[in-house]
């Protein structure tokens, strides 16, 4: 992860990862310009279900 030119270490736990996403959600959403390939990647890695993918992609 890069933060203002610095590299951050990866979170040690799921809770830390979720907190990181919560804290950076606006920055993440602004960085995503196209739903493809973002949603495809989430689905392929099992982060979102096929149903959630279809609901938000189509």
From TrEMBL:
GO molecular function, one term: DNA-binding transcription factor activity, RNA polymerase II-specific
Chain ranges of the HSR domain: 1-58
Pfam families according to UniProt: HSR (PF03172)
GO cellular component: nucleus
Stated name of the protein: HSR domain-containing protein
Organism the protein comes from: Salvator merianae (Argentine black and white tegu)
Taxon lineage: Eukaryota, Metazoa, Chordata, Craniata, Vertebrata
């Amino acid at each position: 992860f890069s933060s203002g030119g610095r590299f951050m270490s990866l979170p040690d736990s799921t809770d830390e990862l979720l907190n990181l996403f919560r804290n950076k959600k606006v920055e993440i959403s602004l960085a995503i310009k196209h739903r493809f390939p973002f949603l495809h990647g989430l689905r392929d890695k099992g982060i979102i279900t096929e149903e959630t993918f279809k609901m938000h992609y189509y």
